[in-house]
Amino acid sequence: MTRYDMHRKKVQQATAVIDNHAPCTYLHLHLKLKKMQIEGENLATVERDNRILLEKMSHIMRTKGRVDNKNDYEHKSLNKTKRQRELLRVTHENQAILKRITSKEPHFNHMHWEEEWKANQRYMDNIAKYPKDWYEDIVRKTKPKKKSAPLQKSNTDDAIKKSNEHLPSINQERTRISSS
Question: What range defines the domain where residue 36 resides?
C-alpha cells in the first residue's frame, strides 16, 4: 500500500517532457509605448491649437476683432529700373525708325499710276463687247417716275424690255459663234 501511494504521488507530480504551452508574451511587443506617446503628443498639439482658435473666435465674437483689411503695402518691382531702361530704348528705336520713314522720299508716283489707269480704261473700252456703263444709261433713260405705285411697275417692265432690245438674243449669239 505504501508503494502504491508513492506511485500515485509520483504520477501526480510527473511533468511533461514535451513543452506544448504557449510562448511567453512580452509586454513591450504588444504595448508600443513610443507610438502611444507620439499619438498623445499629437492629440495635445491639436487640442492646444483648437483651444487657441476657440479663444480667438470668442474674442472676435465679443469685440469687433482685431482684423483690419487695410493694405497700405506699396508693391515694389525688383526689376523696375530694367523695365524702364528697356522702354526708353524701345522708344528711342521707334522714334529713329519713324524719322527714317518720314524723311524718305516716295519711290512711286501716283500721278503716273493715274495716267496708266486711264490708258488701261481706254484699252478696256476699245475691246469691250458693250459700251461702258450701258446698263446705267438705259436705266437712266427709262427711270420710272415716282408718282404712283402701279405706274412704277409698268415703267420698270418697259425699261427691262427696252434694255433687252439692245442685247443680242441667245440664238443670234449661238449662230454667230458657230459660224465663226
Answer: 32-62
